[in-house]
Amino acid sequence: MERLTRAKLTRALNTFLLSMALLIAMAIIASGVPAYAEEEKGAHHAKEEAAPAPANEEAASIPPEGTAGPDNASVSVVFSAFNRYIFRGYEVSTHSMVFQPSITLSYMGFSANVWSNIDTHEQATQNFIPDNPGGASYNEVDIKLSYTRSWGLFSLTGGYVYYGVKYANKTQEVFMAAALDMITKPVLTVYRDFDSFPGTYFNLAFSHSVPLPMIMKDMTLDLGACFGYMDGSSGYWHTYEAASTAGGTDAYTGKKYSAFHDGMLSLGVTIPIVNNLTVQPVAMYTFPLSHDASRMVNGVSYNPNGALDQNFIYGLNLTYNF
User: Is the entire prediction scored with pTM above 0.85?
Assistant: First the structure.
């Protein structure tokens, strides 16, 4: 793997530090005191790294050693609507409303989630080839199975994800996430695709929810940020080489794609409607983390999945827990 140049590493670190500074500054301005969010409660899918999770006004309690989760079953139903669908920085839809219903069942640390995407007007992007151009398509159903165990402030989650997509080859991943129950809620997740697109994706995510009791009880301001690194490890991930370069072929025959990949900043407001029902308007900004992630070679994406660009996503999550 080619070493990152000093300039690339500096750009990535500067982006990271600036993003975190903005996130922490917003939290300090809005609150001045830490508030701890409940995890994955009504969060927009975008593959675990997209929107901040809403919080209750009170801080989450610290679980006892070796806790595997409550012994009562719970169900969470989420209906999301957004102006586009972005996955790990890749633009999977554009200029089209998408609906993303999901349901999660949890019991004693075990969790099963089914998530889907409905694109109301499929249009091609450099990252996406529609299966029904110009029309509506129910083009993705994902299944995630996981188990979480906690030791005080620290927890580990391991699991499996099946991506049932129409616009690309179906694929599978296993993942492991390590989380700390503290201010900014840091979570480091490692995903390993072992099927159609072998490679490893690392994601470092932060979230913070600030109670807004002066406006409404249980209302929160939800902040989030995440940063990804992609390390392709199969023939699919070869990068584009121009014929004008030494040994170039005007084809995807270069070194495997490995780079600081995508970043995201998000802002939401969780508003309680009735018992167990909340609505969360949310806005997200995604951007490439390095030159290689956004690089074009003679008009062709250096990254075999298409170059990343800046995107603004907005919409809402409607969540019911029972």
Answer: no
